[in-house]
Automatic annotation (TrEMBL):
Species annotation: Solirubrobacter pauli
InterPro entries xrefs: MetI-like, MetI-like_sf
Transmembrane segment boundaries: 57-78, 90-110, 116-135, 165-190, 210-233
UniProt keyword annotations, A-Z: Cell membrane, Membrane, Transmembrane, Transmembrane helix, Transport
Family from the record: Belongs to the binding-protein-dependent transport system permease family.
Chief localization: membrane
Compartment(s) where it occurs, according to its Swiss-Prot or TrEMBL record: Cell membrane
Residues in ABC transmembrane type-1 domain copies: 50-230
Lineage top rank: taxon: Bacteria
GO cellular component: plasma membrane
Protein name in UniProt: NitT/TauT family transport system permease protein/putative hydroxymethylpyrimidine transport system permease protein
UniProt topology in membrane: Multi-pass membrane protein
SUPFAM superfamilies assigned to the protein according to its UniProt record, in alphabetical order: MetI-like (SSF161098)
């Protein structure tokens, strides 16, 4: 954890020197000190928007997790579902979210629902693919042992395949958590009157670059915090996995 902070401090120091030396227009690239000052002075503006964006991220991520895991299990249990849906799941990632987001807003309005759906669409793919692959990649010897014990299909799923899929599932969840913030921002850009994504747009339009960078810093911090949260949860839930042992 110390190494990333040292790198961040070094980059921030260089950034500060470049701006203070007048090598770049501060309207385009504010100094880190100006961004830090704005974070504190505009906390009454940034705080509510951060809460709104966080709520969109949490709900969208939860929806993607529920649907993604259910679909991954269905694909694993029914080969016909796997053959029919996997190409569609992969192909869905070729649809640009910035193009899709305005259409979703037009269909569902400017409320919370389109934001949740867009975040879920962004998070859906890494969850369903990683869980499906984790369910399939089970130790063959363990599978043979359960079959020799005449374990039912449900018992094999519950006692072998589902636990074996947890490390892969957490990988998908961590990726989804990192990109969920992007989905929320794109949703707010498509149509919103609140949230950090909306704040970035309005701040840029008003040439308040320090406020735009402050909002962006909060978005980055939120993505890192979510990733760290699920990493910690992974270490606790699947402590038996070799890759969770530091």
């Amino acid at each position: 954890m110390i190494a990333p902070l040292l790198v961040l401090a070094a980059l921030g120091g260089v950034w500060e020197l470049v701006v203070r030396a007048g090598m770049v227009n501060e309207l385009l690239l504010p100094a880190p000190s100006a961004v830090a000052t704005t974070l504190w002075e505009d906390r009454s503006i940034l705080g509510p928007d951060l809460a709104i964006t966080t709520w969109e991220v949490v709900l969208g991520l939860a929806a993607a997790l529920l649907v993604g895991v259910a679909l991954a299990v269905a694909m694993h249990l029914v080969p016909a579902v796997e053959n029919a849906l996997r190409p569609l799941v992969v192909g869905s990632q070729a649809v640009p979210i910035p193009v899709l987001a305005p259409l979703v807003v037009l269909l569902l309005g400017f409320g919370l629902a389109p934001k949740i759906l867009i975040v879920a669409l962004v998070c859906f793919f890494p969850i369903v693919v990683n869980v499906a692959d984790g369910l399939r990649d089970v130790d063959p010897d363990a599978r043979r042992v359960l079959r020799s014990l005449h374990a039912s299909r449900w018992q094999r799923l519950r006692f072998l395949e589902a636990p074996s899929a947890l490390p892969s599932g957490f990988t998908g969840l961590k990726i989804a958590a990192a990109v969920a913030v992007i989905g929320a921002v794109l949703a707010e850009w498509a149509g919103s009157t609140s949230g950090l994504g909306h704040l970035v747009v309005t701040a840029n339009a008003q040439l308040e670059s320090a406020r735009a960078f402050a909002a962006t810093a909060l978005l980055v911090a939120e993505a890192v915090a979510l990733y760290a949260l699920f990493s910690a949860l992974e270490r606790r839930v699947v402590s038996w996995s070799p890759r969770t042992v530091s």
